[in-house]
Amino acid sequence: MGTNDTDGRFTRLFSEGVTDSMDEPGYGSWRSISAPEAVSLSFGFPFPASFPNDELLAAAEALFDEAPETALSYVGSGAANELASVVVERARERGIDCDEDQVVLTNGATHAIDVACATFLDPGDLVVVESPTFMGALKLFRNYGVDVAGVGMDADGLDVAALAADLERREAEGRPLPKLLYTIPDFHNPTGVTLSRERRERLIELAETYGFVVLEDDPYGELRYHGERVPSLAALDDSGLVVRVNTFSKTIAPGVRTGWLIAHEALADQLRRVNAGGRNTFTQGVVGRYCAEGRLEENVADLVEAYGERRDHMLARLEAEMPPGVEWSEPDGGFFVWVELPEGVDAEEMLPAAADEGVVYLPGHLFHPDDSGRNCLRISFSHVSFDEMERGVAALGRTVRSVANVEGAASD
Amino acid sequence: MGTNDTDGRFTRLFSEGVTDSMDEPGYGSWRSISAPEAVSLSFGFPFPASFPNDELLAAAEALFDEAPETALSYVGSGAANELASVVVERARERGIDCDEDQVVLTNGATHAIDVACATFLDPGDLVVVESPTFMGALKLFRNYGVDVAGVGMDADGLDVAALAADLERREAEGRPLPKLLYTIPDFHNPTGVTLSRERRERLIELAETYGFVVLEDDPYGELRYHGERVPSLAALDDSGLVVRVNTFSKTIAPGVRTGWLIAHEALADQLRRVNAGGRNTFTQGVVGRYCAEGRLEENVADLVEAYGERRDHMLARLEAEMPPGVEWSEPDGGFFVWVELPEGVDAEEMLPAAADEGVVYLPGHLFHPDDSGRNCLRISFSHVSFDEMERGVAALGRTVRSVANVEGAASD
Q1: pTM of the model
Q2: Which residue, among A83, A113, A282, would best test binding to B if mutated, counting the most B CBs under 10 Å from its CB?
Q3: Separation of first and last alpha carbons in chain A
């Protein structure tokens, strides 16, 4: 509660979930990790030139021209109301057999996760996450007063065998089973890895056996630069237990704050009822108009090319600059590279030295429900220029060499 | 659950609040009350010509021109980030002493109420509302599995003396006291009445005595057509227990879906933490740019004139068309008139006959937590044309005369 409630007079007003988590830093608190002179490799922000300003402005003009009476209304323009069918069409291209009744439009993906939390979770419920996982989701879960358990990952994503063993033990010992499992199967945040098809199928079997919801968060799925697509969990699912979260934040721009859930109708009915915050019909109309002109496909193709070059450049710079004993993931898509420093090096403690050298990043413990991963860090190639990437990775290499007392570079 | 979950396999997945309320119609279900050939007096929608399309498009152009790299980003443009100060400035004009730390921007007022619910409410908590009240808020509260108790109203708003007596009885009998009281003090939805200053002061005293949050929802406060402003609850409050909800939905347009909370810092910190859904920086930038040019004040002045004429016209038509035994509120602002039919006439049962005569409205029981108010209905002058208002009120008069078997008009 901090300094504002020293006498505690407000504290008893809060819900159980808020009370349990009120001393934790808020959503987005990690954004304070910056240093004015340093290159920031911290954030999964799209690069500024990627924003389709002109096309969205043209879409806004067309929207007001075509629907002057409904563009800003509660009920929304035709373009806004056709957005669910755009979502269905794109989902079907990904092999997900769904219709508009299964789509719940939200104010972004984080809001979609929040709606899923409110729909499924009570205080004390168990939520399983990949460890590490998206820290924004961790913060959301904590607002609900739930217990969060992490399951490890490797180069093929979530360790589903470890999950299966844990579930079996929990059942045998009469301990709580999860209500919901949260996963980012494609180009995972923060590790960049992709869950293999075999593990996806096994994960769905486990959901059926133990009766939990699989919340599939797929913001990066369309941004693949190498390799072959793996079917989404929603495409593989027959159980109705997979709830898919997606967003235009990475394929158009974060500022349009438009996301959605796709779920079995029986779940979608309740998700829609909980999603009471109302629609930004203005933005939905602009985005709908933009998509109706085929702009989204063009934009995604451009982004795949641009981010792919960035990804290659960052991996090349890491290869050139990192000393021995440092390992990193090689993502086929998305925004992130996960770096493992030699054991004993603490990425959070190293941060001031790194900032002095000229780079900041996000320390790995932020992404772990149990505060582990202290020798890891996340860097992103999505936002910085090539020049900044070069300077940032070089500064990171110097910092690690100095802190870890290692010599030479990985490529030596 | 309905037809989609006949075997109940999904039902156990839901949270307690959702389980308790899952058979209820969803948010906005009342919008299905319409008939193609009938005039709809049902909805609190702004009239289409009120939407500042050209000004918002110009604001979008200026936004992209001034902030091409941040207009669509996570962090947002200067215009988006100055919106909290616009909110503070307008709140101060209403006598509310606050600063930006106390402002939490949300995706609309309903979302703001939802954030307040998530922050303060656990299943089983007691929420007190005016009876009748905004049905959207009733639906939200039900999602949280709370108990909702209504307190009656008269021409001066919430019956605060009845509330005081109820609180005293609850305390004496050891029954639960409210965690939160929800009120629309200015131009109440659905009744149109305004809470008197004396009652506002007494209500805040009761909140202090019994320790509950007062959630002041004020979407219509700037739209006053007659009489003198009454200070908002937030302006009268020294306890820190008043949380104010507001929105640009009625002063700019519903489609911009931009609202906010103003609260004591200790509460704002937690409201902000719960409000994790992220910001629509695009819309916030467009709205911020629009406000920065002084457009909001101009628009509000235009709206006050236009809605004031509509209000006068509707009251005149009611006076001309309603038979004896029918009473209605005479709102000084806002969008709504509350009509009380003779005892024994059921507004829901009358609806098909009204639709045949050429008008639809919202039956009063929708607004009552206990389904009472069956001889009441809400009509709105905000959305229809003058001609539609004339035809709609005339049709309503014919319907009441026919159903209630009364003769003549109120003005006879």
Answers
A1: 0.93
A2: A282
A3: 51
